[in-house]
Amino acid sequence: TNLSTTQKGKLVNFSFNNQFIKTVKDNAVESNISIIRNRLDVFGAGEITIFPQGENSIVVELPNVSDPERAKERIGSSALLEMKPIYDYAKTEEQLLEKLGHTLPEGTMIVKGKTSSIESGYYLVPSYAKVTGRLLKDVNSGFQQRDIFSKSKSSYAVNLKFDSQGAEKFHELTNDNIGHPVAIIIDNTVVSAPVVNEAISSGEAAISGNFEEDSAKELASLLKSGSFVAPVQFVEERQIGPSLGQESIYRGLLSCAIGLGLLFLFSI
Fold first, then answer.
1. Cα separation of 70 and 218, whole Å?
2. Exposed, middle or buried, 64 (CB in 10 Å: 0-12/13-18/19+)?
3. pLDDT digits over 6-39, tens only?
4. Under 8 Å between Cβ of 62 and 72
5. Rg (CA), the chain
6. DSSP 8-state code for residue 163
7. Which one-letter DSSP state was computed for residue 181?
8. Is the distance from CB of 89 to CB of 124 less than 8 angstroms?
9. Number of C-beta neighbours around residue 264 at 10 A
10. Is 58 exposed, middle or buried (0-12, 13-18, 19+ CB in 10 A)?
């Protein structure tokens, strides 16, 4: 079997064999390559080369991309969507910890709100999220279809549709928190903290929060591509400018000329 267990008193250790660990790593790399390709479709993924290197590295080549920084932002964003009930809130982390007696309750964590917005502050939420972006069936941007927010400041929204399992868990979340706020968390940042008006059984919702059309489309695209199976970070970046390309062409022509000249002398 892939899993083996050992027990010492109340401590149970789980360990996987090397072959299973290698399989998990390979699958993670392949899944992340697929997600990166989907995210870079806007730049023309057909011309973009993406391939694995070594055990845990991915190489991305972006020819003819006019905005490499935007491409890096799309690659570097985890786009992990989570929905969690809010247990407590304070304007600063110190105030929240003081309210908790400087000890976090077991199974909870503190998440920061989006800076420069009405969601700014610090929230006490469960460590585990029952409703995540992995349960999404479809994501699109546009005008709101179904809003679980008590207040809305923007007509643009990111519309979510969960699969059957996600719809069931989303209904449970909204039903248990009617009249209470729920944190909409993306990459460990609370982007919205709506108050649930009613239990939602349709499996559809909308994320609003001062979105412009472009920012709503960007977020929808990232959520649709899915969150990374394994964390991604930039290790090395190289840029080849036109001067280097021109120099390569010059050296190529020079080597051809020298080769032809030597061939001519050899023929004589």
1. 11
2. exposed
3. 888 889 998 888 888 888 888 888 888 888 887 7
4. no
5. 25
6. -
7. B
8. yes
9. 9
10. middle
